[in-house]
Design a protein that fits this description.
heterodimer; A: alpha+beta; 6-stranded antiparallel β-sheet; 20% helix; 31% strand; globular; B: alpha+beta; 24% helix
Chain lengths: 321, 124
């Protein structure tokens, strides 16, 4: 019986769904974006939109650059010169590259100046530092993001490269979209889809899955949640790289302003995916990689400034704040 | 006219996903083998049947995306069938007499998480 039970076991995962309005004094949207430090992919979807506005395009192009430093000894991050040049100015983020959080030593520098070290047992004992065991069980190459030309000259002694985020823009014709009502987070049968259904649907759209399958189709029966409606076209945009929360905040604000003029679209979405091998998810909550390492969030922005926020984490994560 | 502002509400769902999603890639030892989407799905079903029998071969399984050129796919399986599907893929060793293996690239209960893979970020 125990074997049968194990065969049907599902790794624990959490989905937090919130609804609020950007105009509310206590709205936490800004804080939640700003404290999700290590972001790999940002995507947004705008129904009934064929061409992005100049403001949105400029924002998307303005996400970079970030810097890749090879062979950087960790002590360089705790020198007075580095701290005075970058850390004290704020907005300096760093993360080890090509280190798997469940196998390797990983280091992250938070914008508040804290250095997080996720170490295996041998390395931890060698360092002699005082820490605590991971909740869930080097000379490294590092990714940085900080003030541009200063970074290039500061680390010129090491192999430093500047990188720009990759951008993908596309338009999808005849997209079937779920019908949503901002006040109905849990949905209502035959009236509106739930936040969870929207979240799954968005995943299908960005994975380019076919959503027009019949129930008897052999290969796939996946379809759009009901009720739904078809939009003539939708704009999709994705940016991948080492992306700063500050830029994501600005993008969120611009998407809120999308509805300053009347639009056909009832809502737009903004999705952000964190690095699977980041040692933290939100704030300083420990993040681990059990089977997926996912920590992501999604905004649904309605035309009356209401919003939904979905935050999703996997097995080795605390509940999102 | 836009609706009036909504009130704050927060719901925490534990294990809400009835499906899990897997990004997989089928690799042949000697290459050069083509499968249609239907053949690919049939291969998955026969892998489940070989290990777990007829009942589990009928688990709700969908091939959401399939790229014939690279033999890559995103699969959707009911959550209670994840371990069975994954173990079936692990133990599948051949197709029509040709040696092959499934590589599992990503797994998540959230399909949106599969639209990007930070472990594939190449900076060198």
């Amino acid at each position: 019986m125990a074997t049968l039970r194990r065969l049907r076991e599902v790794p624990r995962h959490l989905l937090v769904c919130e609804k609020s309005n950007f105009g509310h004094d206590k709205s936490r949207h800004r804080h939640l974006v700003e404290t999700h430090y290590y972001n790999y992919r940002v995507s947004f979807l705008i129904p009934e939109c064929g061409i992005l506005s100049k403001e949105l395009k400029d924002l998307v192009m303005g996400f970079g650059p970030y810097y890749f430093v090879k062979g950087l000894p960790l002590y360089e991050l705790i020198t007075h010169e580095f701290i005075n040049t970058f850390v004290k100015k704020g907005s300096c983020y760093a993360l080890t590259y090509n280190t798997n959080i469940d196998e390797d030593n990983t280091v992250a520098l938070l914008p508040n100046g804290k250095l997080i070290l996720s170490l295996d047992k041998d390395t931890y004992e060698e360092t002699g530092l005082q820490g605590r065991p991971s909740q869930y069980s080097g000379r490294k190459t590092m990714r940085f993001s900080a003030e541009g030309s200063t970074m290039m000259s500061y680390f010129s002694g090491y192999g430093i490269q500047e990188h720009q985020p990759k951008i993908a823009l596309s338009t999808t014709p005849d997209l079937r979209c779920p019908v949503l009502r901002s006040g109905l987070l849990g949905g209502e049968p035959e009236a509106a889809c739930s936040a969870h259904e929207l979240f799954d649907w968005l995943g299908a759209v960005f994975s380019h899955a076919d959503l027009n399958n019949e129930p008897y189709n052999f290969v796939s029966t996946c379809c759009c949640p009901q009720p739904s409606s078809v939009v003539a076209q939708a704009s999709l945009c994705s940016v991948t790289g080492f992306l700063l929360p500050e830029r994501i905040c600005v993008l969120l604000e611009q998407l809120c302003r999308y509805f300053d003029e009347p639009k056909l679209a009832p809502w737009v979405t903004l999705s952000v995916q964190g690095f699977a091998d980041s040692p933290v998810s939100w704030r300083e909550s420990e993040h681990g990689f059990q089977k997926g390492g996912e920590h992501l969030y999604n905004f649904v922005i309605f035309n009356n400034r209401d919003y939904w926020l979905q935050m999703a984490v996997g097995a080795d994560d605390d509940c999102p704040p | 006219m836009p609706a009036p502002a909504t009130s704050y509400e927060r719901i925490v769902y534990k294990n809400p996903s009835e499906y899990h999603y897997m990004k997989v890639h089928l690799e042949f030892q000697d290459g050069g083998v083509g499968l249609t989407a239907a053949q690919f799905k049939q291969l998955l079903i026969s892998a489940l049947k070989d290990l777990f029998g007829e009942v589990d071969a009928a688990l709700p399984l969908d091939v959401l995306t399939y790229e014939e050129k690279t033999l890559s796919a995103i699969l959707r399986i009911c959550s209670s069938g994840l371990v069975k599907l994954w173990s079936s893929l692990t133990l599948l060793g051949s197709y029509k007499g040709k040696n092959c293996a499934f590589r599992v690239i990503q797994v998540s209960p959230f399909l949106l998480a599969l639209s990007g893979n930070s472990r594939e970020l190449v900076l060198n």
